[in-house]
Each structure stands twice: as C-alpha cells, then as structure tokens.
Amino acid sequence: MATNAKAAAPAKTSGFTGMKNAWIILVICCVLGYCVWYFVMGNPDNFIGGDRSGHPANLLGTVYKGGFVVGLILTLLFTVICLGFERFFAIRTASGKMNLAKFTAQVKDAIKAQKFDEAKALCNKMQGSVGNVVLSTINMYQTVETDSTLKKAAKIAKIQQAHEEATQLEMPTLQMNMAMVATIVSLGTLTALFGTVLGMIGSFQALSAGGGADSMALSAGISEALVNTASGILTSWVATVVYNFFSNKIDKLTYALDEIGFTIAATYDSNHNEA
C-alpha cells in the first residue's frame, strides 16, 4: 500500500508557486499608495505658489486634490498590478516547461499506444501542475492494472478518482489570490463612487455658503469628484483585465487536464475486456 501511495504521489513543482500571504502585498501597496499620493502628487512644486491648499499647477497636483481616497485607490491599483505579476509567474510554473497543446497531444498518443514510460518521461519533462496530475493518473492506471481484486468498472472509477484528487490538490496553486483580484474589480468602482460622493458634498457645501469667494471650494469639490471617478474606473478596468486573463489561462489548463484524464480512462476501458 505504501508503495502504491508513493508511486501515485505527484512530483514536486519547481519554481514560483504563488504567495499565500497576499495581505502582505496589500499592506505594502497601501504604504506605497499613500506615499505616492502625499509626497509625489502632493509635492509643493505641483501647486501654484508651492501651497498644497492652492490651485494645482499640473496633473499631479490635480490628482492630489482628489483627497485621501486617491491614496486608497492607488493602494488597490498597485495591489492588482502586483497580484498580476504574482499570478503570471505562478501560473507559468503550473503550466509546465512544455507547450500545453504539444504536451497534451504527445501524452495522449503515448497513452493510447500503451507507452507509459514515454508518457511518464513527458510528465517529468513538463513538470508543473499539469505534469503532476497526469503522472498521478498514469501511476494509478498501472496500479489498478495489476490489481485482480477489482472489477473493470471499479478500476476505471479509481483512475478517474485519482485524476480528480490530483487536480484538486493542484487547483489552489492555480486559483490562489484570484478572489482578491475579483474583489478589487468591485472595490475600485465602489471606492470611486465613495470619493465622488465626498467631492460632490464639498461642492454643495460651497454652493450653500454662497458668494464668489467660494468658487475655489466649488471647483475643488468637483475636481475631487472627477479625479476619484477616473482613478477608480481605471483600477477596476485593470483588475477586470487581470482577472479575465488569468481565469482564461486556468480554464485552458483545466480543460487540458480533463481531456487527458478522459483519454487515460477511455484507454483502459478499450484495452481491457474483463468484466
């Protein structure tokens, strides 16, 4: 039993497999976001007369006028960019070292021809989550093939179960931190709305005060609203692109694994006539 378990164990994945404590990225990006907002955008050189409370002299000064919400939106934007790079390297490792379509075609041909040593060699060359899952399934195929106590249907079920279990073990690596990216998709828009509302409140307060002297406060409130709207939409746009891009990558890997798993089970079914 121990020998079978050892044989079915997935090979180790070499390379970057993802960052489990993504909140660390969020904290670092929060510090970075507010530093950029206060020290870069809030640099006195970006304002007429060097006074932050005065009129902005350029775009950076205008964005700074969006208020503290800009720092929060920058936090979300920097976080989703960092998670995008994190997912890129993690999924690249999980995808293995060979072209996915080429590996799928070659390993299917090897399995159909009963060349399991060749298929294992391809898995060891491929590595990553894909190679691990296929190798586990092939190992189970060879294990049940020598087991005379099980019927054919039970053997096929065990092959399928081994494939599904190996896939589930690898899925956390693929989907890690995707939930945070999906959350930022919504948070970007909601934070933009929050900043817009704060800006409009400032504008209405300026209007209620009356008088031409409050025109600066009115324009500042409108500027705050528009800046937060634009930056929040940008953040949600980036987060949506990142989420959909990597979701598509994960789906391709999952479909390839399902295709190979079906091929292995179907090969056993066609090559064995026992009941």
What does the model show?
This protein is mainly α. It has helices at residues 2-8, 23-41, 59-64, 68-95, 100-112, 116-126, 128-145, 152-175, 178-209, 215-271. Helix 6 runs antiparallel to helix 7. The longest helix has 57 residues, at 215-271.
How far do the termini sit from each other? 24 Å
pLDDT averaged residue by residue? 86
Number of strands: 0
Evaluate the radius of gyration: 28 Å
User: How much beta, percentage-wise?
Assistant: under 5%
Task: Give the helix tally.
Answer: 10
Overall, the morphology is rod-shaped
- Measured as a percent range, the helix fraction is over 70%
| Structural class by helix and strand composition | mainly alpha
Report the order of strands and helices: HHHHHHHHHH
Q: Low-confidence parts, pLDDT < 50 over ≥5 residues?
A: 1-11
Report the major sheet: none
Keyphrases for this structure?
disordered N terminus, 78% helix, mainly alpha, 10 helices
